[in-house]
Amino acid sequence: MLRWINPAVFIACLGPLARLAWKGFHSLLGANPIEVITHSTGDWTLTFLLITLSVTPVRKLTHQYWLIGLRRMFGLFAFFYGTLHLLTYVWLDKFFAVHEMLADVAKRRFITAGLTAFVLMIPLALTSTKGWIRRLGGKRRLALHRLIYASAAAGVIHYIWLVKADLRKPLQYASVLGILLLYRIAVWVRTRTPGTLRATDMKTSET
């Protein structure tokens, strides 16, 4: 199934970039195109982070186990749009003025939060290859993967601190992230209950 689904999902994930390019080519980015590009790439970075985090609970609740094969792609697209978001700021907004960017990081807390979110995605992207997955092993890879929760949280904080007034959209992202975190906590608590631990031990002894 994934042989057919993967290319379709890959093309769909490129849709936001294609839409931005089409708007830019037809001069439809408005009076402030840099702001439009910045907000669009930032929105899609958060969206793909949350989609990545949603794969495991959706897979477990619906028993659609093939979905796990898409998680890495969604995560890499989150990093891809995050890179475009950062490049828009560094290149189009600041024209690589290092001193201005350092001053922004020091003075503007929303930029500090956004940079933190991006930096936390870097090790996830670098270790997403099959070779690195084999080197890390299951437990270390799982521990590293938890950085995505911190990255998503920093991204949401970045958005909230950025808009200040109209918080509806960033709070929507925060709500989705909150639900995913609660699910994760519920699963962790369930696996620590005595009954669940005994069942796990029985399964291990049988195998």
What does the model show?
The chain has 207 residues and is mainly alpha-helical. It is 86% helix and 0% strand. The chain has helices at residues 2-13, 15-25, 33-62, 68-93, 98-107, 109-126, 130-145, 147-163, 168-191, 194-206.
Give the helix/strand layout:
Elements (H helix, E strand, L loop, with lengths): L1 H12 L1 H11 L7 H30 L5 H26 L4 H10 L1 H18 L3 H16 L1 H17 L4 H24 L2 H13 L1
Write a compact overview of the structure shown.
The chain is mainly alpha-helical. The protein has helices at residues 2-13, 15-25, 33-62, 68-93, 98-107, 109-126, 130-145, 147-163, 168-191, 194-206. Helix 3 runs parallel beside helix 9.
Looking at the chains present, what oligomeric state does this protein adopt? single chain
Distance between the termini: 29 Å
Shape field = globular
**Which class of secondary structure composition applies to the elements?**
mainly alpha
- The pLDDT mean sits at 88
The major pleated sheet works out as:
none
Helix content: over 70%
* Number of E-type strands: 0
- Total helix count? 10
Low-confidence stretches are 197-207
How large a portion of the residues is in β-strands, by DSSP E?
under 5%
Determine Rg (CA atoms, Å): 19 Å
Can you write the helix and strand succession as a string? HHHHHHHHHH
List keywords for this structure.
10 helices, mainly alpha, single chain, disordered C terminus, 207 residues
